[in-house]
Amino acid sequence: MAEGHTVEGRQFRTKADYEAALRDKKKIDAIKAKTNLNDPQDVLALYEQMRGGTYRFESMVGNDFDDLIYELAEKYKKTGTDPSGKQAKARGKVRKGKKKEPADGEKISLEDFDKDMQKEITAQLKARDRRRKWLVALCSAGAIFGFGYFITYYYVAERTEAGYEELASLKNSEILAEPVNSSEEKKVIVVRGEQEEIVLPDILDEYKTLYNKNKKLIGWLKIDDTIIDYPVMQTSNNEYYLTHNFNQEKDNNGSIFMDTECVAYPRSQNLILYGHHMKSGKMFGDLEKYAKESYYQKHSVIQFDTIYEKGVYQVMYVFRARVLKENEIAFKYYQFIEANSGEEFNSYMNEMAEMSLYDTGVTAEYGDELLTLSTCDHSQTDGRFVVVAKRIQ
């Protein structure tokens, strides 16, 4: 890590992240210059502006400030006090028309007011009662909706899990395993940006039934002792399988899928697989556990078969990254599918080694075949959590 890449106690691995943090600090300093954080009104006004998108941050420095304003705003809303503990001034209408001031401990009745005031008070009480009933009704409806949502979510999640267990049982099945292509069959496919006439190898027997159920199947990914045991899909874009399952049904869990630019045969140097970071842990929800070196040590081997050949991979690098703008000049792991030379390959390896959260001791040479697993990283804007492995079998 480069020295000096520290802002507000946060350390940053890349120059791009460091510069984003500096921009956030400058923006925060400008906000503090015109906002009194000891004034509840100022803080609540700032909080509403941030909620409305007036201020947007790019780094963890900005996220820390966002959390601070949120906590102050919540405190002021609940207590109505400033940080010194003084009660904030209440603003409201002064009651008029009262016949007399009550003595200490004396109860006030409606008759203590003149007729006009009695009518106004009665109307306000009725309005308050209507609001209370509406609020109760809305809360009840919200509770029913929320309960229904979670029931539906877990039902769909369980159905999806059962569906993948059924698909796993179809591996090595002969139910639909009629031949899908012969050794003489030729197919025109796009390889390295050029059309070539390629004789594809036979599909592995264990995947023939699954392939005949959905010909977008391109492989199967499995990591022992984890929830990751899924078919891998590939289509002409990187959008469809974000929201569809193996059976091509709409499903928020989506599917694990290979980048559309990757080629299973002849194999691209680096195969990139994407999956959602689901809170349930499904898909690539548990991938972030690799942030702990102890987890990596117990799960260092990844099995990934294409439909044409089996493969075993050793984890090399684990890192956090961001999706960068097109005009940003920096290493973009999601664009690394082929290296045009040994020098370029080594440059990519050095970039990932620098970003890696720990040193696995595993390295790769030009000509080695790689596998990259990518999912969202919610700790930063447009964040990604990435695991890169080298094929060893």
Would you give an account of this structure?
With 393 residues, the chain is α+β, with helices and mostly antiparallel strands. Helices cover 35% and strands 17% of the residues. The protein contains seven helices and twelve strands. It has helices at 15-34, 40-51, 60-79, 115-169, 205-213, 293-298, 342-355, and strands spanning 6-7, 10-11, 187-191, 194-198, 217-222, 229-233, 256-258, 270-274, 301-306, 312-322, 370-377, 383-391. Strands 5-6-7-8-11-12-10-9 form an eight-stranded mixed beta barrel. A two-stranded antiparallel ribbon has the order 1-2. A hairpin with a 6-residue loop joins strand 5 and strand 6 (229-233). Helix 1 (15-34) packs parallel to helix 3 (60-79). The longest helix is centred in the middle third of the chain and has 55 residues, at 115-169. The two termini are 33 Å apart. Residues 82-100 and 180-185 have low confidence and may be disordered.
Question: How would you summarize what this structure contains?
Answer:
By secondary structure, the chain is α+β, with helices and mostly antiparallel strands.
Gyration radius over CA: 30 Å
Element-level helix/strand string = EEHHHHEEHEEEEHEEHEE
Largest sheet: 8 strands, mixed, barrel
Number of helices: 7
SSE diagram, text form:
Elements: E1 6-7, E2 10-11, H1 15-34, H2 40-51, H3 60-79, H4 115-169, E3 187-191, E4 194-198, H5 205-213, E5 217-222, E6 229-233, E7 256-258, E8 270-274, H6 293-298, E9 301-306, E10 312-322, H7 342-355, E11 370-377, E12 383-391
Parallel strand pairs: 6-7, 8-11
Antiparallel strand pairs: 1-2, 3-4, 5-6, 5-9, 7-8, 9-10, 10-12, 11-12
Helix pairs in contact: 1-3, 2-3
